[in-house]
Each structure stands twice: as structure tokens, then as C-alpha cells.
């Protein structure tokens, strides 16, 4: 089945169809124009450019539009047909389903699935699919055709009536056996299914099923080159096809080892990990047991144990443990094709995502992608609500304000269990938000598993940037940010920082200016600033930027008072050089000159 499917809707007319197809295709996201009536996981400005980017990224595309729109969007990007993703046109009213490209990379099967759900025929034009119910150059996911350059010639001969013999050395070739190919015991053409490194010819198509589990071990910080060299040597000596490797597997203590992940990337397969208790279950099948390994890891063998655990009870150890420079490797052969998603667990990822001030139009594409990829969402309820349709169907773990430590602990713990988690913040997650707390918890050593999580911080538009953009350019010269909340910082330390910033003549962004119990800090900060800059210094009060209730107010420094603000307000105070620029409508612009010569 094609993965990471983008359902592209061009407007409200196809919104219902998009929602229906998303329910049919779990691994999909809806993409639509940035309009009020177009609910979607991802919004775009120009359809053809967005479709072109998706195509280059290798995303399968289901366009709810005329086929010509899709063709024009990808025409300049066409290349090797064997590498092109599925591109399918579906009429807005659901009356037609046409696979345009990638028929041999899942488009035909995907089109048939969509068409069946809509009650219409799929307009599949590929000869092999129509005649034999398969395409020789489009094996199932995880399988590899070693010599795709010969597939067209072989298919042509089969269409002319020649028979073919099937030889299966490894794996379950049910997809071939269940087809209507003209199999015969004696034939000039052969289809060989094998885990061995065998060359294909015009008379023989060679398929490698994903039946090899590559177990590896690595000392902390072992060179990636050493592990890859060992694995390459093992595969070559044993005449095993790298394309038959289904996954790289190891102990969960190795989940953060760069060498393991570099090897998996080089082989183009997932890396999966097992707890020591699972590897202990394979002790009787190991070729030998190591006391040293047991003392360090809690199991008797990492490489062999992981390979056997991945291959399953019907698998067997094909290559016993081989040692290299601070690394080990072993290979197990499974009785049937392996599904990496059902093996062990992946290295967990925690994406600390900044939503920006609130509006989707200020959310980065990276943030959209990380939220779409996340299996679970963690955050304060208001922030999770701001995500909108992109959060639909994902488990939400809601924490109240004040529970920031608990929120981050929970997110790290879920990610440490192998999940893909998004910890959602407003603004930028590294500016008075949760990114720093995440790293503080990791550094505490509370749970060693947290250090093995893949942590990604995705920046967002901060409140100070948003306020400055709305007001003009007040951050054009040196500036700083100070939080007036004394929950985590002593009040006297806050005042010292305000004094230093005032003496340095910085533009200052005040976060958390007031609360229900805390009213003094803003007034004290104002009084300090008035000793260093003019009373008419421009002050911007920005509230709920990027949201429907957005407001922006421009006042003088001597007018600044706590009752003008709340916890949703950012206070941006100009320096002594900040200036106003009158405009015809609305409040004056504010800018802080950098020092350029202006005639």
C-alpha cells in the first residue's frame, strides 16, 4: 500500500470527498487552499507549486481535480519512472479515478481501492495489470526487483504467450502465485525469488523479498564506517543481497547510536530495537553466550539475539555473530517476508513544535509536517485547539497551565517507548517555552531512556516577532526579552535585568507582564525605564496576535499601566532612538533605526 498519501482538494466543492477518502486511507493528509471554507491538515497558496513539491518529496498524490492540472504541475519534474510516486486524478464528484503516474509504484492498486469505495471502475491502462493482475516492475512493499531494466522485455514476452517458471528460495511469493502469470515447470524465462545476491538477466527476473534480519551491536560512539564495513563484508562473503535486508535491529540501549542509524539509512531500511528481556528469550538459539555482554546489557547476545527476535520463531540464524572494530553483526533468515512495523519498536521521537502566535498562516511548513507525522499530541488544551483539523484523529494528552514539568516528563516517557510525539507550544518553543525544560529533564538523568529519544525542536514565530511585524520595525536594532513572571525567577533578579537593559538602551519585549496576583512588576519596570528614556518612548501592547481577537495598541511609556495588560499581552518598549511614523489609517508605525545614512 502506498504510504504518506496527500489528498489534494482545490476547494470547498471537493471537501466532502476529501474527508471520505481520508477516512478510507489512514496514512493520508488533506491539502487544500488557504481559505476559510477549506478545512485541511495542510494549507497551500498555489496548487500547482504545492503539488510539484509533494511530487519531488516522493509523496503519493490523490488530486481531486482534472487530470490536466496534475499533469501540468509535475510535467517539468518527470524523470525515472521507477522513482516517480503515485499520481492519481479523481473527479470532484467521484465519478472517475485515473492513475496517471507511478502505476508500478502503487498507483494502480491505490486507484482500484479508491474506485471500489466510490463504486466506479478504475481507469488502469497498464497492460500487465489488466492481463495478469500484477506489474512485474512493481513488487509489494519491501520487495526489490534486482534487474528492473529487464522487466519490460519479460512482460512483453509473457503477453505474447511465453510461459515462465517460478523458483522460490526464500520468503512467501503469494503475490506471484496468486496472479494469472503463465507458470510452467519448463520455460525459457525464470522468476527467481531469493535472498542471495544473484544477477538478473533478460531471461531471469530476480526478486529479493525482505527476509533478512540484520542484528548489530555497537560500543558507545563506535564509528559508523566500522559497522558498515563489517556488514558489507558479511553480506559479500555470504553472498547475501543487501536488498533482502528488511531491517537493522539491536538492543534498545543502542537506540541512539549514530552508527546503527547510519547503517539503516545506507541500506534504506528501518532501525528497530528490543528490550533486553525480549533478547533473553532467544538465549537457547544463540551460537554462544557472553558474560561480558550480559553484565553490560542484561542479555547474552545483542546482534544474534536481535536478529533472531526479528526473524521470529520460524526463522533461523544464517550468519553467527561477526566482530569488527567495536561493532558486531549477525544475520537471521525469516520464513516469510518481514514487516518492520511489527518488529520491536523504533527510536522514539519528540518534536517540540512551535505554533507561532496562533494563526495557521504563521505556522511553518516544518511544524505542519511534524504535527502530521506525530502519533500523539501533548500540550496545554488551548494550544492543541489551535492546531485545528491537523489534530483530528490523534490522541491528545492535555495538561493544564502550571503542569509544565509533568507535561514534558509525559512527552519524553511516551517518546522513550518508541512513539512519535509532538509537544505543542505557542510562539517559539525555545523562547519562554518548553524546549529548555525538555533538555533540562534529559540532563537530569532521571530516566536514561530519555537520552535515547530523537528530539527535534521546530521554531515558531515568537510573540515579539509578531508584535514587531504588526507595528512596523521596532526590532531594527539591538533588543532583548525579559519575563516579568517571578514564578521561576526571583523578583530582584528581574529588576536587575530591567535596569541593565534600560542602561544599555535596548528595545525590550516584556513577556508575562501581569497576572491576577502580580501587578507590581510592570509598574516597577516602567519607572526604571523612565529614568533612562523619554516619557514619549513608543510602547506597543500586542494581544492575541494571529487570532480572531487580535488587538494592537500604541501608547507612550509614561502611559504604561498594569491595568492595560493581561497574561495574553506582550509589551514591546522602544529604545531612546525608536520613532513613530504617521500613517493615514490606524496607529502610527514604529521603527528603531539601525544607523544607515538616509538622505
TrEMBL record:
Pathway: Cofactor biosynthesis; adenosylcobalamin biosynthesis. Residues 212-332 form the CobE/GbiG C-terminal domain. One of its GO terms (molecular function) is precorrin-3B C17-methyltransferase activity. Residues 140-209 form the Cobalamin biosynthesis central region domain. Its EC number is 2.1.1.131. Residues 50-129 form the Cobalamin synthesis G N-terminal domain. It is an enzyme of class 2 (transferase). InterPro entries: 4pyrrol_Mease (IPR000878), 4pyrrol_Methylase_sf (IPR035996), 4pyrrole_Mease_sub1 (IPR014777), 4pyrrole_Mease_sub2 (IPR014776), CbiG_mid (IPR021745), CbiG_N (IPR021744), Cbl_synth_CobJ/CibH_dom (IPR006363), CobE/GbiG_C (IPR002750). GO terms for biological process: methylation. Keywords: Cobalamin biosynthesis, Methyltransferase, S-adenosyl-L-methionine, Signal, Transferase. Residues 350-560 form the Tetrapyrrole methylase domain. It comes from the Bacteria. SUPFAM superfamilies: CbiG N-terminal domain-like (SSF159672), CobE/GbiG C-terminal domain-like (SSF159664), Tetrapyrrole methylase (SSF53790). This is Precorrin-3B C(17)-methyltransferase. It comes from Benzoatithermus flavus.
Amino acid at each position: 500500500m502506498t504510504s504518506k498519501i496527500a489528498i489534494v482538494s482545490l476547494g470547498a466543492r471537493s471537501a466532502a470527498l476529501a474527508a471520505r477518502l481520508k477516512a478510507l486511507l489512514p496514512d493520508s493528509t488533506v491539502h487544500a487552499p488557504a481559505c476559510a471554507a477549506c478545512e485541511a491538515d495542510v494549507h497551500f497558496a498555489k496548487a500547482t507549486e504545492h503539488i510539484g513539491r509533494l511530487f519531488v518529496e516522493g509523496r503519493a498524490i490523490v488530486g481531486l481535480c482534472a487530470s490536466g492540472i496534475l499533469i501540468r504541475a509535475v510535467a517539468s519534474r518527470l524523470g525515472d519512472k521507477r522513482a516517480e510516486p503515485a499520481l492519481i486524478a479523481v473527479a470532484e464528484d467521484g465519478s472517475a479515478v485515473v492513475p496517471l503516474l507511478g502505476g508500478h509504484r502503487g498507483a494502480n492498486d491505490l486507484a482500484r481501492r479508491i474506485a471500489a469505495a466510490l463504486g466506479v471502475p478504475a481507469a488502469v491502462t497498464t497492460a500487465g495489470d489488466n492481463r495478469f493482475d500484477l506489474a512485474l516492475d512493481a513488487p509489494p512493499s519491501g520487495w526489490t526487483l534486482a534487474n528492473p531494466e529487464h522487466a519490460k522485455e519479460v512482460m512483453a514476452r509473457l503477453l505474447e504467450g511465453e510461459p515462465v517458471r517460478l523458483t522460490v528460495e526464500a520468503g512467501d511469493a503469494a503475490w506471484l502465485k496468486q496472479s494469472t502469470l503463465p507458470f510452467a515447470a519448463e520455460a525459457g524465462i525464470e522468476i527467481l525469488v531469493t535472498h542471495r545476491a544473484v544477477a538478473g538477466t533478460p531471461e531471469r527476473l530476480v526478486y529479493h523479498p525482505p527476509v533478512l534480519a540484520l542484528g548489530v551491536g555497537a560500543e558507545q560512539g563506535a564509528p559508523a564506517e566500522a559497522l558498515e564495513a563489517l556488514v558489507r563484508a558479511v553480506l559479500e562473503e555470504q553472498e547475501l543481497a543487501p536488498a533482502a535486508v528488511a531491517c537493522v535491529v539491536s538492543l534498545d540501549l543502542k537506540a541512539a547510536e549514530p552508527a546503527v542509524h547510519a547503517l539503516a539509512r545506507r541500506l534504506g531500511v528501518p532501525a528497530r530495537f528490543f528490550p533486553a528481556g525480549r533478547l533473553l528469550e532467544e538465549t537457547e538459539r544463540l551460537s554462544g553466550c557472553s558474560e561480558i555482554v550480559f553484565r553490560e546489557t542484561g542479555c547474552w547476545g545483542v546482534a544474534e539475539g536481535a536478529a533472531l527476535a526479528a526473524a521470529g520463531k520460524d526463522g533461523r540464524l544464517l550468519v553467527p555473530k561477526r566482530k569488527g572494530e567495536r561493532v558486531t553483526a549477525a544475520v537471521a533468515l525469516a520464513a516469510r517476508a518481514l514487516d518492520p512495523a511489527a518488529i520491536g519498536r523504533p527510536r522514539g521521537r519528540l518534536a517540540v513544535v512551535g505554533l507561532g502566535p496562533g494563526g495557521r498562516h504563521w505556522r511553518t511548513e516544518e511544524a505542519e509536517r511534524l504535527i502530521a507525522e506525530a502519533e500523539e499530541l501533548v500540550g496545554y488544551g488551548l494550544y492543541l485547539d489551535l492546531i485545528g483539523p491537523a489534530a483530528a484523529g490523534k490522541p491528545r494528552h492535555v495538561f493544564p497551565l502550571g503542569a509544565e514539568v509533568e507535561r514534558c516528563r509525559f512527552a519524553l516517557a511516551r517518546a522513550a517507548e518508541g512513539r512519535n510525539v509532538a509537544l505543542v507550544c505557542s510562539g517559539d518553543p525555545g523562547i519562554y517555552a518548553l524546549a529548555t525544560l525538555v533538555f533540562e529533564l534529559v540532563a537530569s538523568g532521571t530516566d536514561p531512556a530519555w537520552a535515547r529519544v530523537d528530539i527535534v525542536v521546530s521554531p515558531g514565530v515568537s510573540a515579539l516577532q509578531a508584535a514587531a511585524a504588526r507595528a512596523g520595525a521596532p526590532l531594527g536594532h539591538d533588543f532583548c526579552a525579559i519575563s516579568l513572571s517571578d514564578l521561576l525567577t526571583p523578583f530582584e533578579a528581574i529588576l536587575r535585568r530591567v535596569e541593565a537593559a534600560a542602561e544599555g538602551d535596548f528595545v525590550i519585549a516584556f513577556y508575562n507582564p501581569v497576572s491576577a496576583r502580580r501587578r507590581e512588576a510592570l509598574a516597577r519596570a516602567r519607572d526604571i525605564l523612565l529614568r533612562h528614556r523619554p516619557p514619549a518612548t513608543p510602547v506597543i501592547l500586542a494581544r492575541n496576535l494571529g487570532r480572531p481577537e487580535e488587538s494592537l495598541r500604541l501608547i507612550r511609556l509614561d502611559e504604561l499601566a498594569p491595568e492595560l495588560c493581561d497574561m495574553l499581552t506582550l509589551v514591546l518598549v522602544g529604545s531612546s532612538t525608536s520613532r513613530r511614523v504617521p500613517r493615514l489609517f490606524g496607529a502610527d508605525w514604529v521603527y528603531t533605526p539601525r544607523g544607515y545614512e538616509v538622505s
